[in-house]
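HUMAN: I'm a chemist; might I ask for a sequence paired with its structure tokens?

ASSISTANT:
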Amino acid sequence: MIVTGCTKERTGSSRPQHQRQTLRIGLVPEQSIFKQVHRYEPLADYLSRKLNVNVSLSVIPSYDKALSSFTAKGLDAAFFESMTYILAHARLGGEPIARPVNLDGTPTYYGVMFVRKDCNIRSVREMRGKRLALVDRSTMAGYLLPLAYCKKAGVDYTTYLKEPYFSGTHEDVIHDVLDRKADIGAAKSTVLTRLSTDDARIKNDLLILARTPLVPESCLSGRRDLSATLKDRLKSVLLNMDEDREGIRVLREFKARKFMETSDSDFNPAYLFARELDIDLKAGFDATVR
């Protein structure tokens, strides 16, 4: 799915408009496609107006295909989560531009592994034969956390559990556990928080068993050869949104306070987590731990 913002010609002009540059931004499937587009479309429209370029949003079908889709679709930048960012940096030379600060003032998230309070699962010992809902093999919160949790306890989750499966999005994992389609789930803390505003079951019915270190929120990362001038302008617009009335409105819709500058070193906790699981970042998604 591709959504393009601000592509109409100016009204009242009889002369043809010069074709504007297009900035193609990818989105990983944190939640359903339509919710993801609904969240990011006002931001794309705002960037189109401020940069005087056409900003198009392209939803990447899965975390597992993030890098291949990034290349195949000719994307200029993407909002990558921690694991997809460090893979993109290692393989494609992707560079961080900026990341949002959450409404609670935090620019980070962590992965959580959770169960329903009424299921009596409190440790690996009670997980034997239970169903585990995961997001995708290329996510820290939705896959590497439970992998590390089971590895530390000396068990192979693929045989110890009854039916581990991948749901595709953090939101789907949360709903699967709440609706008893799965006994155990793993997802992003910020998605849990966002959904909890409309669903009291998240606070009342779920129990967190484990969490990852704090890592940066989904970061806008540009391709290695993206124009330095465009990259600097894009960063400037994002970092100054909270000082602009229209920008503040868009940030409110985006569920963020502001954007902040981000560097590769901010992802050191994710790099460490990957090293502890012996993940070869340069080998790509197909070679990540199974």
About this structure: The radius of gyration is 20 Å. The chain has two domains: 2-7+20-107+215-287, 111-211.
